[in-house]
Amino acid sequence: MGKMLSQAASKFHLDIHVLENDAECPASYTCAQFNKGNITSFDDVYQFGKQMDIITIEIESVNLAALESLEQEGKKVYPQPSVLRVITDKGLQKTFYASHGIPTSQFALYDNKTDILKAIASENITFPFVQKLRRDGYDGRGVQIIRHKEQIDNLFEAPSVVEALVDIEKEISVIVARNEDGRITAFPVVEMEFHPEANLVEFLFCPSETSEAIQTKATALACKLAADFEIVGLLAVEMFVAKSGEILVNEVAPRPHNSGHQTIEANYTSQYEQHLRCILNWPLGDTNAHHASVMVNLLGEVSYAGKAIYSNAEQILDMPGVYIHIYGKKETKPFRKMGHVTVISQELKDAVEKARIVKNTLKIIS
């Protein structure tokens, strides 16, 4: 994300500085200045931020106390630390939805495995259900479906959210942008298809084939959430469309998001440029798509770990309307996100056909 944000900033000749512990991280090759440091360290984040005019993030696991101190001293920190405090705790997220009239799946909060077992015994929890760690889960980690009693030994020990399992028709996402003046725009609704084993997004489709009514309602929900949070920056809102037709907010991300990569080639304004416009309080760009698009996540092959080799890339480069993004991570491992490919076309059907070829052709091995 940091790499693509720096690339978007280059067209405006913005002076982008990056803080990261890995001197060879993808963003280190595209920013004006790279600073080696630990984003979870108070001192590293605070000392870095003191030198900056505006501070933003590309992942939520940043030392929030340091960001709060910088904000209190007058630095512009976007998204605001108060928003991050809520979003980095899935329990607080769900409570926020409930208190603001945002539809979400039924849930309860538990401190540990013992409390969940007691709730099962008293039938306050029924099978099947979803358990999510309140903190530090991402990309399918820290989330599990408990379908029957024989799986309860697998319960996480840490503080968790337990949710009712939704009978899902589709999973969709809307990315919303809000600037300092409170102006809000939304990108078109996208549909997501997940890898069955890794629980990671494998394909993303735009435009969505859901009804106009569902898309209108989903966009309105996403815009309401951005306004309720009073966020400055992007908010990616992931939602379930239940088989009953109900739309339920699953979770949100306060930054550029995997469900918006295709906007680089398919939309008049990319999510990365829009994020910059938000935090600089510039006019927001046109979010409309000028082509149908499919995004394919490039995941590390399950049998390989080691130095990354991109096999059959030449065949993909020969296809019109196909754009490869290699993130530059040196090492591959099973299901690691190593890049993405966006396919654009006048017709979604054509883009889908090419995307399936990309998925079956371009392999990341070692």
Account of the 3D structure:
It contains eleven helices and 21 strands. Helix 3 links the parallel strand 3 (54-55) and strand 4. By secondary structure, the chain is an alpha+beta fold. The protein is 28% helix and 28% strand. The chain has helices spanning 2-10, 42-50, 64-72, 81-87, 90-99, 113-121, 212-229, 263-266, 271-279, 313-317, 348-361, and strands at residues 17-20, 33-36, 54-55, 76-77, 107-110, 129-133, 143-146, 160-164, 168-178, 184-186, 190-194, 201-206, 233-242, 247-253, 292-299, 306-307, 309-311, 322-326, 331-332, 337-345, 363-365. The model has no long low-confidence stretch (mean pLDDT 96). The protein folds into three domains: 2-77, 3-Layer(aba) Sandwich (Rossmann fold), CATH 3.40.50.20; 106-164, ATP-grasp fold, A domain (Dna Ligase, domain 1), CATH 3.30.1490.20; 168-365, ATP-grasp fold, B domain (D-amino Acid Aminotransferase, Chain A, domain 1, 2-Layer Sandwich), CATH 3.30.470. The longest helix is centred in the middle third of the chain and has 18 residues, at 212-229. Helix 1 packs across helix 9 (271-279), helix 2 runs parallel beside helix 3 (64-72) and helix 3 runs antiparallel to helix 4 (81-87). It is globular and about 60 Å long. Strands 9, 10, 11, 12, 13, 14, 15, 18 and 20 form a nine-stranded antiparallel beta sheet that branches. It has a four-stranded antiparallel beta sheet with strand order 5-8-6-7. It has a two-stranded parallel sheet with strand order 1-2.
